[in-house]
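Suppose a colleague, Dr. K., hands you the sequence of a protein chain of 362 amino acids and asks what its three-dimensional shape might be. Before reaching for any lab equipment, you can write down a predicted structure in token form. Begin with the sequence itself:
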Amino acid sequence: MNRSFRRLMILCFAMVLDPAGFLFLARGAEVPSVDEILRMEKQLIESRRAIRSGQVVVRIDTPTYDSYPELTQMQKRYVTFFQGDNIRCDQEFTKGGERHREQIVFTKDTMIQTRPDALSATVFGPQGRPKDSSMISDPRRLGLVCWFYDTMNQFGYETWFLSPNRDRFKIDAHTDAGEPVWRVSYRDATGKSEELVEYLLAKNKGGLPLYLGARYTEGKVETLRSIRVKLQNYKNGGDGVWYPSEVVLRDTRGGKLVLEEIVTVEHAQFGQDLPEKTFTLAGLGLPKGTVVATETGKGMTWNGERLVDGQTEDVSPAVEELPTAGGPRVLWVVFSLLLAAGAALLWYRRRRSRHSGVDANA
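The predicted structure, expressed as tokens, is then:
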């Protein structure tokens, strides 16, 4: 059997087994230029920001976490509402029979933090609330809500797309599990550090990423951080929104898997009108007797319908028991420290990826 015949047979099998992928790869002339890829990136960001409102429910499992193995036993669940600039995230962390709940609401005028199980809440006004909502999970950042800051922010569109610090672009037509994609790779260099980045954009699924990975070396150890995405069209009675149904984050160092996080989208709905009280104290379903602190230092109590001055005699300030060694409370402390570390990482990444040449907010 000569070489030409073998090639013909291979092409025939490819066309039968994966006709869409075969036709896609056969159209080499359609491969976009770098400028066209930059336009796709900008459209991708704009498509996320154009999602006016929605509700997303996700479950997050962490099978592998070498730095904090005890957290692999914890399951996280997020229910997030958003409408315009208003964001609300109801968080639930469970480990064994223990449960810890928190709620965070961010609007242009207020920020509310609650711990329903501890009967406590804090309300910040325009002067006391943070200047931006970076500490609150916005499912439009990457099209999902995530507990681990690497997933939510480090791989946010604004960080990896449209950065001017990139060169050595390579673009080609490819298939991923039979899905036609544009495969894009480049070098991201800032100062003495550099990363090799690759992503796959699903051509027929809103141009969203199916894969995004960054490879870099610290000392002599090579690290690969990546996300792998499954996409679904959530129609909700309209044309639909392409959005993840599952996202898997993996962190590999020196060939060893040190972190794996699996995000499963249990429910997603977009474009609906949410009740105004969704983003208010009255809409959080706080238990009667919850003590509410304000930025002025004045203590108030939620009576089930509204805030009343001071505390009722049968309600004492909500104070949790001191943590016992290895107890669930320790995990909540570790979790809070990780969020703080994530915020610092976010600040560094944003500083590193200065958009001096192209403005992602344009």
